[in-house]
Amino acid sequence: MLYSRWVTTVESQFFCFVFSQLDAIKMPSFLTASRSPFVLLLEVVVSWLFLLVTVYAPIGIKARVAEDAASRRKWSVYFYEITAGAGFLLLFGWLSLLLKTNAFYWTVSFIQSKIHKASLVFSWVCCVIAALRIVTWRRQGSTGSGEEEGLPKIFVRKSFHFIASIVFVTGLLGDVVLLHVACTVALVSFILIEVIRAYRLWPIGDSLHDYMSCLTDDRDSGRVIVTHIYLLLGFALPVWLVPTTKKGVFKLAMYSGVVSLGIGDSLASIFGKWLGRIKWPDSTKTLEGTLAGMVGQIAMGAILYSLDPEIVLENTSQKVHILVSLVFTSLLEGVTLQIDNLVLPVYILALLMVQ
């Protein structure tokens, strides 16, 4: 209790000072460098999430190890209060300082400017509902004995890749800036949900744990489930890292997560599971799966080239460059022992950005 009150008091005093001195504060040069408001928003959100998983961790641990329901409820409420307070103060304090305008008015203005994109947002909401429905089907198909009924886990997990691909393709074709902000909101949501689940915070921590545990694999053997967060980062990092005004090969680079994870990794896993016979050395992955992923990535690249008018290739060397990048990414998928949801998009992004 004393810890939570101390943290809240320090935050409140600091940001009250920031608000009172907003016009007089002289920002360091590295903070005044030209960056879009959406990048600044991402920076503030990441800082808040860092506080969430570090400074506020003792309160979450207190809630998780509480011996009775009343204590657990008390520490959970403290955690929610501090998290919400810090989020509000950071978003409307520090962000106002960086934007040099009121962050609340900026948010309202941004929402008003995107009202005409309501159908795009609605389609993303439908994709989220579909993903939740798949999780429900998976839970209903799992038995207590550890046996699996219904769709195998590999198909369920890769269906999320396909759903994410729909979201990102429609976003990159429809409104890159809106997708940029939506990725930031999704990152906040994913990490908040995972923190609540990991600390079993009242009132929904246990329910979240039961709901999500049916999708874990050997990479989620610890207390934290991270594969869905890695998947989001794999799709979102190319959108965040490539300037929204870039075209040509750079615009194609924004689709790095779609091509490498949504299509390549998914097809490699599914076809490798079905038809795979020849395995790569010291790996469970197969040559047949790698070839399927390679063909899928090349086909997806051609489809995106025909769909997105901003992907303009000026000469044959650029097409060869893209083809070689896709082939190398497919080979990396077949042999890597790292977290492919993070490694593959960053690898193909780096290859495509080399000019």
Structural description of this entry:
- The chain is mostly helical.
- Helices cover 73% and strands 0% of the residues.
- It has 15 helices and no strands.
- The protein has helices at 2-20, 37-53, 57-64, 69-99, 103-113, 118-141, 153-174, 176-198, 205-212, 227-241, 249-253, 256-275, 287-307, 316-335, 340-353.
- α7 packs parallel to α10 (227-241), α10 (227-241) runs parallel beside α15 (340-353) and α14 (316-335) runs antiparallel to α15.
In short:
Helices cover 73% and strands 0% of the residues. With 355 residues, it is an all-alpha fold.
> Main sheet, how many strands, which sense, barrel?
none
How much beta, percentage-wise?
Answer: under 5%
Please tally the helical runs, counting DSSP H or I stretches of 4 or more residues.
15
Task: Spell out the helices and strands N to C.
Answer: HHHHHHHHHHHHHHH
Mean pLDDT: 84
* Strand count: 0
Regions with pLDDT < 50 over 5+ consecutive residues? 2-8, 10-33, 143-147
Key features of this structure:
355 residues, mainly alpha, 15 helices, disordered N terminus
SSE map:
Blueprint (H helix, E strand, L loop, with lengths): L1 H19 L16 H17 L3 H8 L4 H31 L3 H11 L4 H24 L11 H22 L1 H23 L6 H8 L14 H15 L7 H5 L2 H20 L11 H21 L8 H20 L4 H14 L2
